[in-house]
Structure formats: C-alpha cells, structure tokens
C-alpha cells in the first residue's frame, strides 16, 4: 500500500512544477523575440517568412497555455484555503478602486493582451479575485515593479497570467 503525500509535500511538488513551467515560459518569450528579429531581418515577404510567422503564432499559443496552466495550478493550491467561501470576482472599472481592494493581496497576476494593447490584472485577496483591465505599458519588468509598489506586495507574489476560479 503506497503512502499518500502530505499537503506540504503536494504543495512543494506544485511549486516545483510551477517553477519549471515559468522557466519554459521564459524560454518561449526568448524564442518568440528571436523569431521576431529573424522575421524582420528576412523582410515581410516569401514562403520562409510566412512559415516563421506561423511558428511564432504557435509559440505564442503554447506560451498562453503554459501561463494558463501556471495560473490553474496556483489557484488550485489556494482554493483549499477558501473552499468554505463563495466564489467572488470583483471587476473594477477604475484603477483606484482596484488599488484600494488589492493592497496587500496574497497573489497578483497580470496578462498582456497585445492585440488589444491592453492588460488585465487580477489580485487574490480574502478569498475574492479583484480584476482590472486597462491600457498597458511597454516594459513588463517596470510594470511588475510598479504593481509591487502600488499594491504594497512583494514582486515574488506577482506573476504574468490570469487568476481564475475553477
């Protein structure tokens, strides 16, 4: 008879999986950037350029799936803490409202919607997900630092992706 892992061991395994997925996500970011540079160098014409663009699209889709998986695992881990509460999503139309409700949040995620030139930011706080959408800045690193200062939470608790209730 096999012994069942403790919650702590399960959380450690999930943390390991999340870290590996985040590394893969960083690798994909790098590959997409390099592919974009190669496409630009080759010019916008030709069969090769079209194939490169298709690969770029597939890499972006994989990156999105990895982000979603990271968020799913992260949220599943937190879900047990709040299982006695109803699922609540608070959608803020004003940044100041989001900031007020999300200060000192347990976890924050953000997702860039490049096609729309917008971002979505979600915060897990007191069993609620508070969300805001707005126009996005160019530099994600500076954006993460700004979020950290605005919401008074450590950068480690901020991840690129989406918080969702499963």
Q: Quick gist of this model?
A:
The chain folds into two domains: 7-78, Helix Hairpins (Orthogonal Bundle), CATH 1.10.287; 85-160, Signal recognition particle alu RNA binding heterodimer, srp9/1.
What spatial form do the alpha-carbon principal axes imply?
globular
Are there runs of 5+ residues with pLDDT below 50, and where? none
Rg from alpha-carbon coordinates: 18 Å
Number of helices: 4
* Beta strand %: 15-25%
Stated plainly, the CATH topology of the largest domain is called: Signal recognition particle alu RNA binding heterodimer, srp9/1
Q: Span from first to last CA?
A: 32 Å
Q: Structural class of the helix and strand makeup?
A: alpha/beta
Highest CATH level, the class of the largest domain: Alpha Beta
Explain what this protein looks like in three dimensions.
The protein is of the alpha/beta class. It folds into two domains: 7-78, Helix Hairpins (Orthogonal Bundle); 85-160, Signal recognition particle alu RNA binding heterodimer, srp9/1. 54% of the residues lie in helices and 19% in strands. The chain contains four helices and five strands; from the N terminus they run ααβαβββαβ. The protein has helices spanning 7-42, 47-79, 95-102, 140-151; strands at 88-92, 107-113, 118-125, 128-135, 158-160. It has a five-stranded mixed sheet, covered by helices on one side. α1 packs antiparallel against α2 (47-79). The radius of gyration is 18 Å and the shape is globular. The model has no long low-confidence stretch (mean pLDDT 75).
List the SSEs and their pairings.
Blueprint (H helix, E strand, L loop, with lengths): L6 H36 L4 H33 L8 E5 L2 H8 L4 E7 L4 E8 L2 E8 L4 H12 L6 E3 L6
Parallel strand pairs: 1-4, 2-5
Antiparallel strand pairs: 2-3, 3-4
Helix pairs in contact: 1-2
């Amino acid at each position: 008879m096999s012994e069942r892992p403790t919650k702590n061991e399960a959380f450690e395994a999930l943390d390991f999986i999340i870290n590996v997925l985040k590394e893969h996500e960083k690798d994909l970011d790098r590959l997409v950037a390099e592919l974009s540079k190669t496409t630009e160098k080759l010019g916008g014409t030709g069969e090769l350029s079209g194939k490169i663009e298709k690969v770029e699209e597939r890499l972006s889709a994989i990156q999105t799936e990895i982000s979603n998986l990271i968020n799913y695992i992260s949220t599943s881990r937190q879900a047990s803490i709040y299982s006695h509460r109803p699922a609540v999503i608070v959608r803020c139309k004003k940044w100041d409202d989001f900031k007020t409700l999300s200060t000192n949040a347990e976890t924050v995620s953000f997702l860039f919607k490049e096609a729309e030139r917008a971002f979505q930011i979600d915060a897990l706080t007191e069993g609620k997900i508070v969300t805001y959408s707005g126009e996005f800045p160019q530099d994600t690193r500076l954006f993460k630092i700004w979020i950290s200062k605005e919401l008074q939470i450590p950068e480690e608790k901020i991840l690129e992706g989406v918080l969702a209730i499963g």
